[in-house]
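Appendix B, record 7
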Amino acid sequence: MRASQLTHLRWRDVKLASGKLLVQESKTDAGVREIDLAPELIHELRDHKARRQWNSPSDFVFPGKHRRRPRERCAVGRLLKRAIERANELLEKDGWDPINSAVTFHSLRRTYASLMVEAGADPAYTMKQMGHRKAAFTLEIYSDVTTRREGANARLGALLGGDEKAQKGADGPNGGSEARGAPEPPKLYPA
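Structure tokens (predicted):
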């Protein structure tokens, strides 16, 4: 969801039993949509609703002061910052790197699209979930991820094939995937 859509979200739009969320207000027609919720998110929303004093159908899911619609800037600052802090506590506990504090709602939307392609979702489905009018932006994200995936698969194939230089991260005339005639994988990150 976009930050503006999140601030408009009311409990009547959250269908926990069916795992759907209705976006009723958006800057585009495509933005008005039904979003499928992940089981983990359904659980989190149930817990969130149970902890809230104001959880009638007309109440905002993430209210501002005095039960009113929060200002978008406040929601971004307060909600996202708090969510990142909570996630970082859990990540640190499990030995993972923290989420960068510069993460924005928009970068989370891109992350969602990237994760959907990694999960094998259809680009048209992801486009509808994200509320895009045209598939061009969604497909651009998909092609970025596909390029990274193809490079990773080529490197993995070299490693599985026992290529000693590939295991050391070396490329050249006698090492890497080119030793078997395969095209050189793109260098998107260090081996």
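Remarks on this record: The chain is about 50% helix and 5% strand. Residues 165-191 have pLDDT under 50 and may be disordered.
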